[in-house]
Amino acid sequence: MGLPIPHSKLGMWLFLATEIMFFSAFIGAYIVLRAGSPGWPTDANITHIHVWAGGLNTFVLILSSFFVVLALEGMKAQNFAKARRYLCLTLLLACVFLGIKTYEYYGKYSHDILPGHIPETPRMAIDKSMREMKQVVDSRTIALANFKLPAKPEPAKTEASVELAGVTDEKTKEITPPVEELRRKLQAELDAPDTSESRKKELFAFFALETKYRDLNNRALNESITLQEMNQELDTLQKNPDYGAFLAPVHHLQPIIYGNLFASVYFLLTGFHALHVVIGMILFVIVLLQGKRLCEKWSDYVENIGLYWHFVDLVWIFLFPLIYII
Amino acid sequence: MSEQQSHSHVKYSTIFFALCGCTVLSILFDFVDLREKNLLGLNGVVLLSLVVLSIACAKALFVMIYFMHLKFEGRWKYVLLSPTIILAMGLTIAMIPDIGIHYYTNESPQIDYLEQAQQAASESGSANNTEKSHVK
Q1: Predicted pLDDT at A69
Q2: What is the value of ipTM here, to two decimals?
Q3: Is the domain of B47 the same as that of B87?
Q4: Which residue of B has its CA nearest to A44?
């Protein structure tokens, strides 16, 4: 008695059953959160989710699934060279998939579409831009003063002035030392008669930027600047020939309602899927390392990793419409 | 043996092309963009979801039946997969009343902002101002 399949295959199917539960918990949570959040971001210009990238990745995974089937066919027909060839191609396609995924993740990273980083209202967007600008000004102060940062750059102090913008104005009005001390040193250097011309020019540009930052920060604290005005100001500053280049880390302001929830779900779902792809690649590498020693003993192994790989494809088949189209 | 093999080879490639066709169909529905339309008395997003998820289910069935050889397996497949799929769907359905339907009053800054943005868009008569709102 017993099932007419190898134990390893039964084990793989039982494992896949648990995997179905694992992914359906995440996918189900996504569907429910999406349905319960009016105004969920869907515009590709805002979420930077490109249907062509998802479509291409779907094609890549489907093709790799097809190749796995052909590899298994090769194993069963004892044509091990064919099996190796198709397993190699599958591994290559898995690399292509991860490459496209990396490109997509990089796009999210460069637009700062990361969980916890996304402003959801205009006020939050303005606060964020001031926080980023303060970091630019502070790091420029430190660089100009040739001051070496301590191992831990005291995050509480550097964020204090803008993190609480609009909440505790008393605290935000003054910049805490040591940056303030460095600034005073720089001011003294600018006023000193023996400072070289090039250094003076550098310091002058820095103080122009700093004054602009203080002005914008005050307007942000008084709530006397709108989102469009702030974006225009930042665009103008970034075009400035003297200090515009330093402002590259300051992002264009774009509040996204439910952006953080969206980013969390996106990275959770695609991240776990990518992890499964990496594990699949390791399984393929193990069999490919056998080289010419590949024999019929490995037939069950190839069948099982094939099942696993089809499952990875299956998950993506659902993720593609859910994330990229709907 | 070789005849049987070539037969299955053709079949697998047919499945592969069917899967590609389904993917193209999904992308076409993205370009048609049903979100703004109300067809058959259904909200655009709901209709789009139904269409693309049906296509996804068809693709999933193709992969499971042919690529994962479920068509050729014994009855154990039902014993193993039915409870899993029922529980997986049950898990999702169980979450709907709590988060999806909001039987409680839902207060969040996002919703306030959404209302403000929609109001501002309707007042200015232009919903294209992406600075004000990204809501379609």
Answers
A1: 93
A2: 0.79
A3: no
A4: B134
